[in-house]
Amino acid sequence: MYSFFSFDKYSSAKMITLRKEQEKDLESIAMVNDMAFGRKAESKLIDALRNTTEFIPELSVVAVVDGKVIGHILFYPISIIAGKKKHTSLALAPMSVLPAFHKKSIGKLLVIYGLQVAKDIGRKSVIVLGHPSYYPKFGFEPASKWNIKSPFPAPDEAFLAIELEKGSLEKVSGTVIYPKAFDDL
Predict the structure, then answer these.
(1) Is 0.70 topped by the overall pTM?
(2) Could you give the CA distance from residue 127 to residue 25 in angstroms, rounded to a whole number?
(3) 68, 79, 129, 139 - which has most CB atoms within 10 Å?
(4) H-helix segments, 70-166
């Protein structure tokens, strides 16, 4: 868990806590995702992934202010397949922040904290399909650098990867295989 103060020039300081999701957060996580994306597909995805044996509770992280969940990020195991070779990585998906908290660095904090938790528990890399101007500031690079391909059409500059351990993707190549639950997105 990580707590800090955030200062907004229009309001007083707010204590923001980043921590692993708890049972009491599930309804709030769904609401945050529904509001952030304007649809229910992401919250349904999170529920489906949460109910699998591969789900890693430490990698479902919430941002909390005044006891209220205002943001959420999920990292979930995926595979990169090339012929008979299989490499395990993580997908960063989805990440959401309540619209009222946009442009306040909540997403940035979730990404930084989530990547650190993933590294701390021994994960070596992360893949994301995301905004090409957003994720590179965290160290993400086009996955094509490692000859890692998306399973669906995606712009090279938006299909990104990061090594949490230097060199962990050096001998990895192939196509990312997402769990079936991602098909509904």
Answers:
(1) yes
(2) 25
(3) 129
(4) 106-120
The C-alpha angle with vertex 132 and arms to 131 and 135, in degrees rounded to 5, equals: 75
Domain residue spans of the chain: 2-184
Which 8-state DSSP code applies to residue 184?
Answer: G
Residue 3 structure tokens: 């707590």
Before 94, cis peptide (omega within 30)?
yes
10 Å Cβ neighbour count for 151?
13
Query: Residue 63 in contact with residue 97, Cβ under 8 Å?
Result: yes
Cβ within 8 Å of residue 88, ≥6 positions away? 77, 78, 79, 80
Q: Reply yes or no on domain 2-184 having CATH 3.40.50.300.
A: no
CB neighbours of 144 closer than 8 A, spacing ≥ 6?
156, 159
Q: Average per-residue pLDDT in the chain?
A: 93
